[in-house]
């Protein structure tokens, strides 16, 4: 049985996963508007990943007989300064998510709720990969600076990203 406090926090986390999806949809829209179609594709896949994160948590809450609440999803930014800016904001967002997941893990540990703690560790591990991927893209963009051909090449690389369900394993 998940404690009431933890149930409330997990539902907030569920909302945050869908909010993350929405943020990435906005980032995809920005990139598409600016002609970075590869980056638009990359963020669209990021959107799909966040939906999968949300679904994993949703299913867990259902399995644990938690009464599901679905609060409204906060509106998101769709304007950014540059390709670098949009990826930097993406990293800052993921770092915030990691912090939240650590707080949730602490709470599950305090409650001796091993099942929820285990679930949260899946998310914590996923965050490490997400942050590392975005950091590598940021480094790459910084390297080329304002060079049009460099940005074109990065955008082309980002167009190759395809969706693999992160929750499938
Ligand atoms: Fe589901 Fe990128 O955090």
Automatic annotation (TrEMBL):
**Which of UniProt's keywords are assigned here?**
Cytoplasm, Iron, Iron storage, Metal-binding, Oxidoreductase
Cellular component GO terms, alphabetically?
cytosol
GO terms for biological process, alphabetical: intracellular iron ion homeostasis; iron ion transport
Q: Where in the cell is it found?
A: Cytoplasm
Chemical reaction(s) catalysed: 4 Fe(2+) + O2 + 6 H2O = 4 iron(III) oxide-hydroxide + 12 H(+)
User: Which residues are recorded as binding Fe cation?
Assistant: 17, 50, 53, 94, 127
EC number(s): the record gives 1.16.3.2
Keyword Cytoplasm found: yes
What's a Pfam family in this record?
Answer: Ferritin
* Predominant location category: cytoplasm
Q: State whether keyword Oxidoreductase applies.
A: yes
| Sample GO molecular function, one term | ferric iron binding
In terms of InterPro entries, this protein maps to: Ferritin, Ferritin-like, Ferritin-like_diiron, Ferritin-like_SF, Ferritin_DPS_dom, Ferritin_prok
Family (UniProt): Belongs to the ferritin family. Prokaryotic subfamily.
Q: What does this protein do?
A: Iron-storage protein.
Question: What name does this protein carry?
Answer: Ferritin
Q: What is the lineage of its organism?
A: Bacteria, Pseudomonadati, Campylobacterota, Epsilonproteobacteria, Campylobacterales
């Amino acid at each position: 049985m998940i404690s009431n406090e933890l149930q409330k926090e997990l539902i907030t986390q569920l909302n945050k996963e869908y909010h993350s999806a929405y943020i990435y949809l906005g980032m995809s829209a920005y990139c598409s508007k600016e002609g970075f179609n590869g980056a638009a594709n990359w963020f669209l896949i990021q959107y799909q990943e966040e939906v999968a994160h949300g679904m994993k948590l949703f299913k867990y809450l259902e399995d644990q007989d938690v009464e599901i609440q679905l609060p409204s999803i906060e509106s998101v930014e769709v304007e950014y300064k540059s390709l670098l800016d949009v990826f930097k904001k993406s990293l800052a967002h993921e770092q915030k998510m990691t912090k939240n997941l650590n707080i949730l893990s602490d709470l599950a540990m305090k409650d001796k709720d091993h099942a929820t703690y285990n679930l949260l560790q899946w998310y914590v591990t996923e965050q490490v990969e997400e942050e590392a991927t975005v950091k590598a893209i940021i480094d790459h963009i910084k390297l080329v600076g304002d060079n049009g051909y460099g940005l074109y090449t990065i955008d082309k690389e980002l167009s190759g990203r395809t969706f693999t369900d992160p929750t499938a394993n």
